[in-house]
Amino acid sequence: MANVEELVKLSAAEMGAAIKKGDVSSRELVDAHLQVIEAAEPSVQAFLKVSADEAREQADAFDAKSADEKAAMPELAGVPIAIKDMIVTKGIETTAASKILEGWIPPYDATVIEKLKAAGMPILGKTNLDEFAQGSSTEHSAYKTTHNPWDTDRVPGGSGGGSASAVAAFEAPLALGTDTGGSIRQPGALTGTVGVKPTYGGVSRFGAIAMASSLDQIGPCSRTVLDSALLQEIIGGHDKRDSTSIPEGPRPMVAAAREGMKRDLKGLKVGLIKELGGDGFQPGVEARFNEGVKKLEEMGAEVTEVSLPHLPYSLGAYYIIMPSEVSSNLARYDGMRYGLRVMPPDNVPQTAANMMAYTREAGFGDEVKRRIILGTYALSAGYYDAWYGSAQKVRTLIIDDFKKAFEKVDVLVGPTSPVTAFKFGEKTEDPMAMYAIDITTIPANLAGVPAMSIPAGLSDDGLPVGFQFIAPQQRDEVMYKPAAALEAALEDEWNGPIWKSLNASWLNGQAK
């Protein structure tokens, strides 16, 4: 067996290939990652729950299969994975990083978990997030604060900072996240990893704890574009248990990624989003992005500037629609039906209303309460049309902007985040400043189109920058080809994958 550091620094595709060749077993990969988790967690704190026993059992069950059985399974068969704690896992505590669900052991698996198990992929554990996926820094978890592996004094982004940090820190080769306004892509940008939001409805949401149902989407976190393509093809496809699930199966994303690795983009029309840049965008972010655009041109892509005129209004529309849906979805956590129950003290009338009030006060954190209040107000009598109704009209205009843009170009590009990873506490006292970070990622969620972030290099501050690709609805493969091409071209520029340059001190002494 190769030493631990060599094993965990393989891509997921390389791990899958090594398993099929018989060079390594699934159990060896699981044990290697569990070793890194043990060493890294004091610094990174990406996991809320490590399911070591379950992962070993799943790996052993896979290793016991015959060679013919393994050959018939997906390329990632036997490769371990981490799961954002917003996704239900049978027998493993699922909390959405909230006290209101503390101790809940689901009796069923989400559809995506069923698919991972069918593919023989052991589950390493559940990763940290902003409570109920509401945040952009993973500082709003009820349990712990996840640190960015590139600089542990800085945030990993949010809400899926745990999944992105686990992948960046070599604690897991792959992870699942959920993306409502950028919760997969923005952490990907800040941690130097690949994050993908599939087309809305392209991956089943059955078993994903609802935040904002018209925006939520499960997607892959990985270190390479090909790894994300392989994972998305496993978890994608129609699910009759999800009423928003698209009837057709997954698109040919793996083939598109492999085609992109040839670095030939002749004939591809790329739209440079005019509105994503300028004030509020870090100079180092814009510099890396512009260098990436130049690389696309060098590989034959035709780049033109495209305007999405209503994009500046997306932030306002999102922060009315999303809290409104949060208010509705989280109403079920009232102490009567689901989750925690806190009874009023003896000197307070023991009514159902008081019990609900005390339960929600104790069970929800400040950011969740803020969004519930915003949403309840927007949906209240006399304000519904003025706020929620107007926001939905703006959403329609944004959808139309994307449709018109895709009549001119094949794929749109822009920075994933206007800034690199910021320090803890830097934005928590100013919610509007935190919300403004999402301006680059929110539009894709409002429009339901697929989008992905890949590492574009390091900014002048030595921190990762994300490059975002956006494709038309149900055409996810269109973004995989140029993303894989740019990834390959940047490896030449940066002397190998950006993620391999991370100084993961916790790997020192891990070799065995």
UniProtKB/TrEMBL annotation:
Alphabetical GO biological process terms: translation
Region (Disordered): 139-163
GO MF annotation list: ATP binding; glutaminyl-tRNA synthase (glutamine-hydrolyzing) activity; hydrolase activity; transferase activity
Pfam families hit by this protein: Amidase
Enzyme class: ligase
Reaction(s) catalysed by this chain's protein: L-glutamyl-tRNA(Gln) + L-glutamine + ATP + H2O = L-glutaminyl-tRNA(Gln) + L-glutamate + ADP + phosphate + H(+)
GO cellular component: glutamyl-tRNA(Gln) amidotransferase complex
Annotated active site: K84 (charge relay system), S159 (charge relay system), S183 (acyl-ester intermediate)
EC number: 6.3.5.7
Domain Amidase per the UniProt entry, residue ranges: 28-477
Annotated Polar residues bias: 139-149
InterPro entries tied to this protein: Amidase, Amidase_CS, Amidase_dom, AS_sf, GatA
PROSITE patterns attached to this UniProt entry: AMIDASES
Entry's family note: Belongs to the amidase family. GatA subfamily.
NCBIfam families in UniProt: gatA
Role: Allows the formation of correctly charged Gln-tRNA(Gln) through the transamidation of misacylated Glu-tRNA(Gln) in organisms which lack glutaminyl-tRNA synthetase. The reaction takes place in the presence of glutamine and ATP through an activated gamma-phospho-Glu-tRNA(Gln).
Protein name (Swiss-Prot/TrEMBL): Glutamyl-tRNA(Gln) amidotransferase subunit A
Lineage: Bacteria, Bacillati, Actinomycetota, Actinomycetes, Bifidobacteriales
Gene name in the database record: gatA
